[in-house]
Structures are given as structure tokens and as C-alpha cells.
Known about the structure:
Helix content is 45%, strand content 11%. By secondary structure, the chain is of the alpha+beta class. The chain folds into two domains: 3-166, no CATH class; 187-295, no CATH class. It has a three-stranded antiparallel beta sheet, with helices on one face. The chain has a three-stranded mixed beta sheet with strand order 4-5-6. Helix 4 (229-239) links the parallel strand 5 (200-207) and strand 6 (243-246). Helix 2 (71-104) runs antiparallel to helix 3 (110-186) and helix 3 packs across helix 6. Residues 1-5 and 281-322 have low confidence and may be disordered.
Amino acid sequence: MSHWALPHPAHYTPSMPRQQDQELVSPRDHKVRVHRHWPDSLLDGTGPAPFFLVDTWRPSDNAGHLASCTPETCRRWVEAALAYATAVDEVSAELTAAHQGAGSVPRWRYFAARRALHDWEKARERYEQTVREAGEAYQPICREIWHAVWAEHDRAGLRAREEAQEKQEDARVEAQARRRATELAERPIWGWSVVTRKKWSIAYVFRHDVPHSDERVSAARQDRPCVNLPELRQALRDLNPDRLHWDDAALAETGRELDGASFGRCWRELFGEDHGTFTSISPYSPPTRRPTDRDNPSGGSATSGTGGYGSGFSCGSFGGGY
């Protein structure tokens, strides 16, 4: 074989520094990130097998694959990667030097050229043998890492499916709640009565199908029309009372029919406003004096059950939190 027939190895970049730069590798939340790395192949048909560079996992890093491991397992993975990279780097450097030596001997130096070619052949044999043996020694670690990677993929897939199922269930519950709220809004079961004295008016809102819990609800409630929620809302807007009181029993029964969702949330989803304040209505300026019991035939104060004043509508009972 003449030096003119020598193969031309590709440029080789050592792999070991890439793993050594990550020498402070340790699991974070019992996970590391592994990157599959292919060392440069110097001979056609004979090249090093890929191995895994091991790095500390960082939430902002999406490169490579996540793998769960203990600190001891992480140490074994890093040591195996360093041993494999060291063996491949050293024999690759030896092969590159032998190639350069064989190619640099002039043809007229016959014996020197023969020795250089002999050294090249030996270096190539050692390269092929070392690459094969290093790959066989690293293979169990490679399989172990692949197993950990796929196990983590399976867990991530399971978590994604569970999250998707939870979102679907939340969407189903929300759609069901909206449907119940819409059905409730269409039922003509609501009524109101208004007490007016001088400058003050208070509207008591109740359900015709629920016994009222507040004595201030007028006995004339049976004479009031039965309306649905949109009609009730329009009627209250037209009345524009100074105070608004929702019957506690009516709100409690409505919350039960809505599977625990508050009436305030139902109203807000239907009309986009607070059921106790009607914030779209201009606030009412209260008078300078506080009304007395004589001004309020119900026997209590006309402060909608809150014990104080408010501008515009106020609500004595919200029937639970939003």
C-alpha cells in the first residue's frame, strides 16, 4: 500500500471536554438532562457509537431528554461517558498522528515509508478494536439511560393525559353550570315587592316557589307577577330602588340548584354585572338624615340588611361568595 492510497480521516473533535465541562453534574428534582452525542468517525464503515452527555437539568433548558436517576446513578452515567470519550479520543488522536506520519514520508525514503505504513496499519487496527471494545463496554449504560429516558417520556405522557382529562372535566362542569344557569334564568319563578316611604325605596326580591326567610317581604308577594331573571333584571332597572334586598332562602335554594355555585356568580355570568349593586346604574346620593323606623313599615331599617348606607343598589345578602 503506498502513501498515495491512504484514506483521509475526517477532522476529529475530541468528545471528552464536552462532558468534562459539565463535571458538576447532579440530579435536580431527581432528574438530569442527557444529550446523545456522535463522536467523529475517522474511517468509512468503522465509527464510534453515540453516547450520552449528562448535564444538570434546568427548567429553562429544553434540549436533549429528561431522565430520572439517583445521585449514584448519575455518577455512574458520567463516569461511563468520560471513560468512553477518553478511549475514543485517545485512539482517534493516535490514528490521526499515524496518518499524518505515513503521509509525510517522501516516496524515495523506501524503508521509512514502509515503517510509517506499518505504523498506520497497526494504528488502524487498534482504532477499530478500541472503538468496538469501548462501545461494548458502554452499551449497558446506554441501554440504562434509554430506559430511563423512555420511562420519563411515559410519565410525562401520563401527566399530559391526566391534565387533558382534568381540563375536559373542568370544561364539562363549566358547560353544565352555564346550562343550569341558563335554564334557571328562563324559569318564571322570581318576584319582588317594593316599600316606599318619602325619599326611600327598598325592593325585596324573592322566589315564588320558596318560602321567604325575611318578614320584610310583603305578604302581597302572591300578587306580584312571576318573571324570569332577564325580566326581573329589567324590572329592577326600571324601578331603580334605593336599596335592594335578596331573600336569603331564595339565594340558598338557587345555589343548591346550581350545585353549590353562588347566585352572584350565576348573575355575573349571565349579565356581566354584580347582582347586588348593578354598577351600570348611576349611584344614588343618600339623604342627609338616616331614616327612622317610622319611615320603614317593615319595622327595621331601610338599609337592605347590611346595617349601613350605600349609594345606588346595595345587597343585604349575597348568598355565598363568588
